[in-house]
Write a structure and sequence with these properties.
heterodimer; A: 175 residues; Nucleotidyltransferase, domain 5; five-stranded mixed beta sheet; 6 strands; B: Nucleotidyltransferase, domain 5; two-stranded parallel sheet; 3 helices; 21% strand; elongated
Chain lengths: 175, 137
């Protein structure tokens, strides 16, 4: 007579699984660096050996000068950094309908001793001005925000409101 | 008169059976989002804040340049001199033509140094840059 073997129920002990999972979780929690790569994007001009000075009509330029103390001049008038946005916005809007070779050029020039933070603040203001104008334009013509437009529409807006920022060649500073 | 203790008839236990599942879910999230840091940053820096910021859409293209509060420049794993920026970046651009350079510059750095680096980048023909900033709230 064959005795039927009692099959013992095979099971993996799962009570410690939570602990193991917690351990792993903790490791990843500690090791995680949620890196945010955000910032102000810019495209530098190509390097040319001898710089030719191109004359640009005065009304096309918005010259921003920042000195070592963080004082800002916009077209030779002293203003504060936070005013840049509003001043520029009007000028950008006024040039929306002009052809592309007459759009506003924002030129930023700094001293060698200017603090980087001030420069970024100024650049931020300029970008904000452009973004707001783009948004308003999109709202007006396409009825939604710039970011929500489809690509061809975005191109259209970009063509109307191009972001032209000129970083002036640094002057050789006399020591 | 005797007082009768009233007890709630419901159980007072938190069901823990699904805890591993929840933990695993969390675990998976963190595993997916984790990027283990590849380089040690040797300079001290504090990023400036800005509002009009964009995300860099393609992380693979990014290459970093750090500038610390003492004016030291770091690329890859080590501190480099200003003159070395151009050859290093040129080699990087050869390997990755549409490279984006993320400049992680300390708030208090001088613009002189930043413009010098930019000049070197221009010479190396690395033209797409990004001033790394954090969001100002």
């Amino acid at each position: 007579m064959i005795k039927k073997k009692k099959i013992s129920e095979a099971s993996i002990p799962t009570s410690s699984m939570a602990d193991i999972a917690f351990l792993l979780l903790l490791f990843f929690l500690v090791a995680t660096v949620i890196d945010v790569d955000t910032g102000i994007g810019l495209t530098l001009p190509e390097y040319v050996k001898d710089v030719k000075n191109v004359k640009v009509p005065k009304n096309r330029m918005a010259a921003i000068l920042i000195n070592a103390n963080g004082d800002v001049l916009l077209d030779n008038k002293p203003i504060s950094v936070t005013q840049i946005k509003d001043k520029l916005k009007n000028r950008i809007i006024s040039k929306i309908d002009l052809p592309s070779n007459k759009k506003l050029i924002v030129s930023v020039k700094t001293d060698r001793k200017t603090k980087y933070d001030v420069y970024i603040q100024a650049l931020d203001q300029i970008k904000q001005a452009y973004f707001e104008v783009r948004n308003e334009y999109s709202q007006q013509f396409f009825g939604s925000k710039y970011k929500e437009l489809i690509e061809t529409q975005q191109k259209e807006v970009q063509k109307k409101v191009p972001i032209i920022i000129s970083l002036a060649e640094p002057e050789s500073v006399k020591k | 008169m005797t007082f009768e203790k009233r007890r709630a008839s419901t159980k007072q236990e938190i069901p823990t059976a699904s805890m591993p599942d929840i933990v695993f879910m969390l675990l998976l999230f963190f595993m997916v989002t984790t990027t283990l840091r590849k380089v040690d940053v040797l300079v001290k820096f504090k990023l400036p804040e800005a509002k009009a910021i964009e995300k860099i859409e393609n992380k693979r293209l990014i290459s970093y340049i750090w500038v610390g509060n003492n004016g030291k420049i770091q690329i890859n794993d080590g501190i480099v001199k200003l003159d070395d920026v151009e050859p290093i970046m040129y080699a990087k651009r050869q390997a990755l033509p549409n490279i984006i350079v993320s400049l992680r510059v300390d708030k208090g750095a001088d613009m002189g140094l930043v413009t010098d680096i930019q000049q070197e980048l221009r010479k190396a023909y690395v033209l797409r840059i990004n001033y790394s900033t954090t969001l100002k709230i």
